[in-house]
Amino acid sequence: MKIKLRVPKLKTALFIAGIMVLSTNLKAQVEKFRDCSLSIEERAQDLLSKLTLEEKISLIGFNSPAVDRLQIPAYNWWNEGLHGVARAGLATVFPQAIALASTFDPDMAQSVADAISTEGRAKHNLAIAQGRHIQYMGINYWTPNINIFRDPRWGRGQETYGEDPFLTGKMGTAFVKGLQGTDEDRYKIAACAKHFAVHSGPEALRHRFDAIVDEKDLRETYLPAFKTLVDNGVSAIMCAYNRVNGEPCCTSPTLLDEILGKEWGFDGQLTTDCGALEDIYLRHKSTPTSVEVAAEAIKAGINMDCSELIQKDAMEAINKGLITEDDINKSIYKNIITQLKLGMYDKPEESPYATFGADSINNQYHVDLALKAAEKSMVLLKNNGILPLKREEIGSLMVAGENAANFSTLAANYHGVSGNMVTYIEGLVNKSGPSTAVQYDLGCSYADTAHFGGTWAASFTDATILVLGLTPLFEGEDGDAFLSEHGGDKADLSIPKAHLAYLKAMRAYHDKPIIVVLTSGSAIDVKAVEPYADAVILAWYSGEQGGNALANILYGDVSPSGRLPLTFYNTIEDLPAYEDYNMSNRTYRYFTDEVAYPFGFGLSYTDFNYTWKQKPAERVKAGEDITFNVTVENTGEYDSDDVVQVYVQYPDMERMPVKELKAFKRTSLKAHTSNNIEFSIDTDDLQKWDLNKSKWKLYKGNYKIMVSKNANEPVLVHNFVIK
């Protein structure tokens, strides 16, 4: 017998409506973290409340798995964008970071980073559309590298913005703005400043090295750039492999808690370098087990582990009472905040970057930008009048040397690949024109110092371009620069012996003009080259348009305007031991002997004259700005950029810098025109660390402002007193 359940129509309607309301409410509750009308914090708390403990732990690792029940896809946090989207296929390859620093142009750095973030977003969109949630296709980048290039032996110094904390802070801040955009609640790409904090070699020892540094050098040299980027909203900080004064950087109470957290108020994501947590118990041996390391890292504020250690050991650490679920919540919360700011839980139509696609990658605008960046970065070190070359006088040209057609001297490390890579020989062929007979010869290998090609043929040409120097296989990261005998580092400043021997052989064979183009990511022994060359250009690792940029400079279409972001020393013996992190007699700020080329050096095809339009005040009080105005005049025949550099000399006290860069400005001037540049220096920026009281102090006394061509060539000098 069937029993029929009779429900009045009104009750049926109410029942169905109730089910629908309940269903809608449940859906709204589930989707709350996807609701863009809510605050970032409210959305983050909602998602956090929905995750199980196991899921939370899994999302602290860089290779974060999917949470299928919440429709959260897998995500890989390991993505690179040092000077272009890296390791992800087609991308515009911009000049290496050290070359970008050589522009002394934060606006250029921001434009380059903006282009990189556009390409990164586009590649991410295309990958997601194909269901590919893979490494190097993400929208957070572990860049920029803002370590101080304190010693030219360091192989990874090429990834930095040079030896000066002020320049590094300015260039790094601009790069972060280009990556992240201007909306602090909606990142274009989330940037990460690395490696916090005292990290610049030796590469071979980085997993076990203890950098010993006193608080004065720590505060005045190794930390300022990080502080600048934190103040300007960088999304993440990456802690380094090494120890600092006995404390592993990735669990350091001093660096992470006292300075980064309490003192600076950093509330972004804190990530480890890859494998750094394993180093703590395996190599530093400061903590006995991986479980204890996992607990220490979580307690120290680590949010993202570039390894599997926390994913593997955090649950056991909880079971042992070393940490709690609340500690895990605090850790994962910042990862969720970053994802929300990146729009990872928004609908596609809610993202301003959703339309970026294949036409956003390596397009003509980005190629042109790479060309302009390369042109601005190359440094003219010597010119006896041979440059610029006059096309009408160059009927034939020899281009030779192992690096003239070498992809790696354009690409550097952490690079993408591009169909627009223009080597130096290709650039010179492009720009010389069909009526110029351009010849090419490999010339020599890195190993052979006896057999050379092209010397006879070069004697019949109007000029020879020799492209010599280093490649990223000789200097770079431990494991990548496999031709380095020192784990990626250099032993000294020398260029390859075969290259120097080849130059000498070329010079001995004929007296025609020889222009040497040096490729490098660091200071090298240019003085060994100079006697045999009529002109010397430092091209760095110049990106995909390096060949065209060099040709434009050689033929005078563009005047060289790069400036050295490093001191070029006469010999490595002038420096302290590599492992010594004391800043005494290092960099232009503390080096007191003669140098080959000073920080900020770079020649032009024209001349510039500086005059005071408005001098600074002669007496200044603490808290006041020091303002002044300088007129820059291009007195020559070529249009050119100039970089006006302002240095400050401090009162004569123990451990004061010799001088410090405190302002700079790149300006473009047509021939026989002038421009007025206004500068302002905050007296707070002149404070130095008082070791006795462990705090910043503005010292009273006599100071100098020096408006200069470079660190060793002041043009305008003004004395003032801080009272």
TrEMBL record:
SUPFAM superfamilies: (Trans)glycosidases (SSF51445), Beta-D-glucan exohydrolase, C-terminal domain (SSF52279). Residues 642-711 form the Fibronectin type III-like domain. Pfam families: Fn3-like (PF14310), Glyco_hydro_3 (PF00933), Glyco_hydro_3_C (PF01915). PANTHER family: BETA-D-XYLOSIDASE 5-RELATED (PTHR42721:SF3), SUGAR HYDROLASE-RELATED (PTHR42721). GO terms for molecular function: alpha-L-arabinofuranosidase activity; xylan 1,4-beta-xylosidase activity. This is Glycoside hydrolase family 3 C-terminal domain-containing protein. One of its GO terms (biological process) is xylan catabolic process. Keywords: Hydrolase, Signal. Belongs to the glycosyl hydrolase 3 family. It comes from the Bacteria. InterPro entries: BXL (IPR044993), Fn3-like (IPR026891), GH (IPR017853), Glyco_hydro_3_C (IPR002772), Glyco_hydro_3_C_sf (IPR036881), Glyco_hydro_3_N (IPR001764), Glyco_hydro_3_N_sf (IPR036962), Ig-like_fold (IPR013783).
